[in-house]
Amino acid sequence: MSGIYIHIPFCKQACHYCDFHFSTSMKKKDEMVLALAKEIQLRKEEFKNDIVETIYFGGGTPSVLAIEDLRLLIDEVYTNYNVIENPEITIEANPDDLSNNRIIELSNNRINRLSIGIQSFFEEDLKMMNRAHNAEEAKKCLEEATQHFDNISLDLIYGIPGMSNEKWIQNIETALSFGIPHISSYALTVEPKTALHSFIQKGIILPPEDEVAQEHFEILVEKLEEAGFIHYELSNFGKENYFSKNNSSYWLGKKYIGIGPSAHSYDGEKRGWNVSNNTLYIKSIQDGKLPFETEILSKTDRYNEYVMTGLRTIWGISLDRIQTEFGQTYLDYLNQQAAKYIEDHLLFVDENILRTTRNGKFLSDGIASDLFLLNLE
């Protein structure tokens, strides 16, 4: 089983914290859609022996596309690939694009999962982040979306400068009041070359504080687990049967093809990525060439990736798999590096699976990097 990710590189406006690849100019939209459709065709050989179980429209803001564009791209996948009977087809959307008519349109066109970028229900936070929607639109679109979609995820951002614990709890409780079965939540991070980075450097906005982010994270875990959510990945919480199949496939090391500028692909042995430039991408595809670079992953690269994804999820790191796939030297190294974290109650081993404790979850990326190997080859 494998997945197809389609990157839609357009946004109405630039969020101050975002460093993903996108353009706020829609001038090349039609050419881009045709190029995406052609790349889907050009790459079908890569999946000739695979079954597609997820199609995911990410971005950028895929909800800026017309329904005809989305339909064309989904049809192209169905024409060129072997798709399971009821695949998970997700579209990322912003509240300002989700009118009631638009929601109905999406639900009538094979899309069965919405991932809605709410980020906050407070006006001042949305303005600070330069989101295109307001708090009222955030609530209204969730009310309407739940009438037509059962499988909905929403995004929330924590650790926003000046956000009190009380305000953060209010954000979580507002999200829960809509009966949404999946929540993704991320700490506000300051990426280089973003507007947020520039504002912090100029002293216009205070920098996020790690202690505040950790406190917000702990509140989030507690509140969502009380509400019956399973914390299945560091930033993802789902009710039973509502985990994101698309994202879970990344964490479980399944194959996926990334379509569109800047999109990444993985086939178990090598990783590839498309050029992050809309004009170059379109020209290359029009010429029948894939604007693609690849790297073959060494055994150590694959070990490091498995450690990173394993520690972030409830599935953990299988010590048996480390031994069979990578060998005794890797297992000895992992056990040696993990020992101090086990002693500090940040990691534990159960049925030969290494996982983070509740206290270790927030620190999982840092712990994973300490379990990485530089090179054993």
Model description:
The chain is α/β, with parallel strands linked by helices. 41% of the residues lie in helices and 22% in strands. It contains 14 helices and 15 strands. The protein has helices at 29-42, 67-80, 100-107, 123-129, 135-148, 165-176, 195-201, 210-226, 245-251, 278-286, 299-312, 319-326, 328-343, 364-371, and strands at residues 2-8, 51-59, 82-93, 113-119, 151-158, 182-187, 230-233, 236-238, 256-259, 264-266, 270-274, 292-296, 317-318, 347-350, 353-356. The strands form three sheets. Strands 7-8-6-5-4-3-2-1-9 form a nine-stranded mixed β-sheet, sandwiched between helices. It has a three-stranded antiparallel β-sheet with strand order 10-11-12, with no helix packed on it. Helix 3 runs parallel beside helix 5 (135-148) and helix 12 (319-326) packs antiparallel against helix 13 (328-343).
- Oligomer state equals single chain
The proportion of residues in beta strands is 15-25%
Low-confidence stretches: none
Strand-pairing-aware structural class: alpha/beta
CA-atom Rg in angstroms: 21 Å
Topology:
Blueprint: E1 2-8, H1 29-42, E2 51-59, H2 67-80, E3 82-93, H3 100-107, E4 113-119, H4 123-129, H5 135-148, E5 151-158, H6 165-176, E6 182-187, H7 195-201, H8 210-226, E7 230-233, E8 236-238, H9 245-251, E9 256-259, E10 264-266, E11 270-274, H10 278-286, E12 292-296, H11 299-312, E13 317-318, H12 319-326, H13 328-343, E14 347-350, E15 353-356, H14 364-371
Parallel strand pairs: 1-2, 1-9, 2-3, 3-4, 4-5, 5-6
Antiparallel strand pairs: 6-8, 7-8, 10-11, 11-12, 13-15, 14-15
Helix pairs in contact: 1-2, 1-10, 3-5, 6-8, 11-14, 12-13
